[in-house]
Design a protein that fits this description.
Bound molecules: guanosine-5'-triphosphate, S-adenosylmethionine, iron/sulfur cluster
Oligomer: single chain
CATH architecture: Alpha-Beta Barrel
Number of helices: 10
Strand content: 15-25%
Amino acid sequence: MLVDGFGRELTEIRMSLTDRCNFDCVYCHNEGLGDTRGPMAPRDEEMTTDEVVRVLSVAADLDVEAVKLTGGEPMLREDLEEIVRRAPDGMEVSLTTNGSFLPGRAEGLVEAGLERVNVSQDAVDPEAFAEITKSGAYDRVVEGVDAALEAGLDPVKLNMVVFEGTVEYVPQLVDRVAERDGLRLQLIEYMPEIAGHPEWAVDVDRVHEWLDDRADRVETREMHDRKRYFVRAEDGDGEGMVEVVDPVENADFCESCHRVRVTHDGSLKGCLNRPRVHPMGELSEAEIRAAFHEVVGDRVPYYGEFMVEEDGEWVRNDEYVGEPLVVEHGRVTADDD
Ligand SMILES: Nc1nc2c(ncn2[C@@H]2O[C@H](COP(=O)(O)OP(=O)(O)OP(=O)(O)O)[C@@H](O)[C@H]2O)c(=O)[nH]1
Ligand SMILES: C[S@@+](CC[C@H](N)C(=O)[O-])C[C@H]1O[C@@H](n2cnc3c(N)ncnc32)[C@H](O)[C@@H]1O
Ligand code: SF4
Ligand code: SF4
């Protein structure tokens, strides 16, 4: 198993299969790659099925236990079922999707070996949903969640980005997961680092305080030091789980981050927020293995190392100012500033 210089074992990879999307959520960070808008047709730079499978196979040899397939919208890939089917034995395969393509495909994905799904849902009414996602697909998403549950992907996590445009809907979504079996809620702190608009951020401590009052019990997940709140339905015995993902300016979160990322065009990234990437393209398995070693060896905790606190503010560590944007077999090919 690979371990970085801060003692963090590499146990998971997050793999973006495309940067295309059929939605245009106002907050989207697109896994660190900028805009998702543009043509829906597959792009040449996307990894092929075989390339995806090769990277997964090397990761499995390095004892990576789980892969999260994401995007852009990963369900725009028609070979998604094949990718899931060909993922290495023993590697947990999960998916994060906007849910609009799950109706009709959820069952096939389960047959192929998909074990979990997270579905983004920021509101419980179509108008609010349309305003945030610039899409009229609210009903499809709700059907998608049902399809996932029917296909046996229980529990389904609903992902909600908490920012100025959604914070008022938090109580409704919390009630929904408390009332309905098989659902969990993940409240994700809005990350302005890549998406811009820092003024949209809301104080995540207030969300924690509100949940603390509402919950019967609270647990902390090892990964990312994430809090999990267990809430009861107002009028019944159901219990729902609400997890808070709060990475922004949170050194504790980064301290137990066991993930690296693969971009849709086949580059390895040691951190969602760090620009430095390592292209893997059509590399052999041995070269991909070497890329994993290099990227993991080069990891830094984003907050606390790449960003350091100075006079109460987080600023970029002088050591990394001007660090290369792209590294190719250890060679610098471009500078980011
Ligand atoms: N900064 C940062 N944000 C993360 C990280 N992991 C998840 N997030 C945020 O949470 C969003 C949703 O993540 P998902 O992939 O659906 O879920 P997950 O956090 O992997 O949770 P599990 O399904 O339980 O593994 C991501 O797109 C990010 O915005 C991380 O390692 N660092
Ligand atoms: C980039 S999307 C890709 C997968 C899929 N299209 C979806 O929306 O679920 C992955 C997750 O990132 C979250 N996300 C996007 N932009 C974000 C931001 N600026 N801050 C926090 N989370 C964000 C989304 O809500 C979603 O749950
Ligand atoms: S559905 Fe996902 S990838 Fe698409 S715009 Fe929304 S958050 Fe971004
Ligand atoms: S180091 Fe921190 S910011 Fe980077 S991916 Fe991990 S948790 Fe996210």
